[in-house]
C-alpha cells in the first residue's frame, strides 16, 4: 500500500498546484532566456551586456579567484547577482518572478526519515555488497533504497548495470527483483553475485528502448537510480502504458536524448514557448559540490586551452566559427599549451603554419575564459529553475496518467547534486 495516499480531492488540488507552479517557472524561463540560453564558448562579449548593464558591471567586478565560490550554490549566486539584475529589470520596467530563483528550498521535500529504517546490513555482509562501489555511489544507493515506498509487489530495476541497487533491495527488503540491463557482461556479473548470496534477484539482458522487452507489469514497483536522459523518460512512458502501480526514479543527464531537441512530456511543457537543445539541457548539470581544488584547476586549464586553440584555428582557417574538439585525457593537461594545440590541430585536420606565436594564443584563451566564466555564472542563476521545470514536466505527465506523485530529495547535495526522487503510485 502507498504511504499516505492522497484522497481524490487532495490529489486534484496537488495536481493543480504542481501545474500552476510549472507555468510560473515556464514564464520566468521564457522571460530570462537571453541570460541562460547561451553558448559561452561562442561569445566574444557578454551577449546580454547592453540589455543588463548593471549585471554586466557586477560580474566583471568579481575577482577571478572568487567565481568558483560564488558558483558553488544557489544562495551565493542569488546574493551576489540578484540585486544588480533587479535594478536592471526595474530600469527597463520589467517584472519577473525572481523569488522562483530560490525554488530549491520550497519545492523538494527533505528525505523522509521515517522511511530510512530499512534493515541495515551487518558489517560482515556490508563489505561484500558495497565492494567495488565508490563511497558516494554507495551512499546514493543506500539512501535511494531507504526512501522507496513499502509494498509487497516485485521490483523491476531499470537499467540495472550489475544490479547494485536491486541486490540491496532484495537483501534488505526481502523482495524479489528483476534487473533489466542490456550489457551481457554486467548481467553475468550481477547473476554471479545473486547466486552466491542466494538472492531473489534475476537478470534479463534486454534493450530498455524495446517496448516488448520492457518486463513492466501492473503489480510491480519499477525503480531507476540515475537513469540518464531518454532512459528514465522511456521508463515512465512504458510504465504508464503498462499501468505499473509504483514508479520510483531519480533523473540524471537530461541532455542524453536521441532527438536533437527536448521532447516535452506534459501538456504544459508541450504548450511552452521554450525550445531546449541538448546544450540547454546540460545547464542543470553544470554544478559540482564534489570537485576538489585540483580538479577545478585542471578544468580551468582545459577550458583556457580549448579557447586558445579556438582563437588559433579561427585565424588559421579564416573562419569565425567555434570548432569543437574531442574529450582529452587528463594526462594531456600536464603538458604544455603548444603540445595541446598540435594534438588538436592534428585531430581536426587543421594545417598549422610555422613560427606560431603560441604564447599569444594561450593568453587569448585565458582572456576568453574570463568572459566565458562570467557568461556561465549568470546562466547558472537559472539552473535550479530549469531543472525544476524538467522535474515538474515528469511529475505533471505522471499525474496526467492518473498517478499520485511526490517529489523529494533522497540524499544531501554533498552526496550528489542529482538528488531528486520522483515516486508515482496508483
UniProtKB/TrEMBL annotation:
Residues 140-259 form the Methyltransferase domain. It holds the Pfam family Methyltransf_32. This is Methyltransferase domain-containing protein. It comes from Shewanella sediminis (strain HAW-EB3).
Amino acid at each position: 500500500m502507498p504511504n499516505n495516499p492522497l484522497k481524490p480531492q487532495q490529489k486534484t488540488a496537488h495536481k493543480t498546484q504542481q501545474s500552476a507552479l510549472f507555468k510560473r517557472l515556464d514564464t520566468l524561463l521564457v522571460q530570462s532566456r537571453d541570460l541562460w540560453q547561451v553558448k559561452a564558448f561562442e561569445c566574444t562579449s557578454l551577449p546580454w551586456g547592453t540589455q543588463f548593464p548593471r549585471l554586466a558591471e557586477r560580474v566583471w567586478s568579481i575577482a577571478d579567484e572568487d567565481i568558483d565560490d560564488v558558483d558553488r550554490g544557489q544562495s551565493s549566486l542569488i546574493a551576489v547577482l540578484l540585486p544588480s539584475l533587479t535594478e536592471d529589470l526595474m530600469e527597463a520596467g520589467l517584472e519577473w518572478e525572481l523569488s522562483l530563483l530560490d525554488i530549491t528550498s520550497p519545492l523538494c521535500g527533505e528525505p523522509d526519515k521515517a522511511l530510512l529504517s530499512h534493515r541495515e546490513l551487518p558489517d560482515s555482509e556490508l563489505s561484500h555488497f558495497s565492494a567495488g562501489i565508490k563511497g558516494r555511489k554507495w551512499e546514493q544507493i543506500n539512501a535511494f533504497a531507504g526512501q522507496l515506498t513499502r509494498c509487497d509487489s516485485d521490483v523491476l530495476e531499470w537499467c540495472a548495470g550489475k544490479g547494485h541497487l536491486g541486490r540491496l533491495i532484495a537483501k534488505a527488503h526481502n523482495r524479489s527483483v528483476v534487473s533489466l540491463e542490456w550489457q551481457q557482461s554486467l548481467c553475468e556479473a550481477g547473476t554471479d553475485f545473486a547466486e552466491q548470496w542466494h538472492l531473489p534477484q534475476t537478470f534479463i539482458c534486454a534493450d530498455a528502448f524495446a517496448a516488448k522487452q520492457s518486463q513492466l507489469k501492473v503489480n510491480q514497483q519499477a525503480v531507476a537510480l540515475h537513469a540518464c536522459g531518454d532512459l528514465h523518460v522511456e521508463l515512465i512512458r512504458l510504465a504508464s502504458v503498462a499501468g505499473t502501480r509504483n514508479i520510483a526514479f531519480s533523473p540524471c543527464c537530461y541532455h542524453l536524448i536521441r532527438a536533437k531537441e527536448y521532447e516535452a512530456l506534459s501538456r504544459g511543457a508541450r504548450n511552452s514557448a521554450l525550445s531546449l537543445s541538448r546544450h540547454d539541457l546540460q545547464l542543470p548539470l553544470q554544478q559540482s559540490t564534489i570537485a576538489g581544488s585540483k580538479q577545478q584547476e585542471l578544468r580551468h586549464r582545459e577550458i583556457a586551452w580549448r579557447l586558445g586553440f579556438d582563437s588559433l584555428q579561427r585565424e588559421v582557417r579564416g573562419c569565425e566559427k567555434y570548432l569543437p574538439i574531442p574529450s582529452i585525457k587528463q594526462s594531456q593537461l600536464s603538458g604544455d599549451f603548444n603540445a595541446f594545440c598540435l594534438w588538436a590541430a592534428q585531430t581536426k585536420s587543421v594545417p598549422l603554419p610555422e613560427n606560431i606565436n603560441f604564447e599569444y594564443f594561450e593568453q587569448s584563451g585565458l582572456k576568453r575564459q574570463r568572459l566565458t566564466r562570467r557568461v556561465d555564472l549568470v546562466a547558472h542563476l537559472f539552473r535550479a529553475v530549469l531543472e525544476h521545470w524538467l522535474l515538474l514536466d515528469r511529475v505533471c505527465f505522471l499525474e496526467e496518467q492518473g498517478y499520485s506523485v511526490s517529489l523529494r530529495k533522497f540524499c544531501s547535495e554533498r552526496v550528489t547534486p542529482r538528488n531528486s526522487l520522483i515516486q508515482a503510485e496508483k
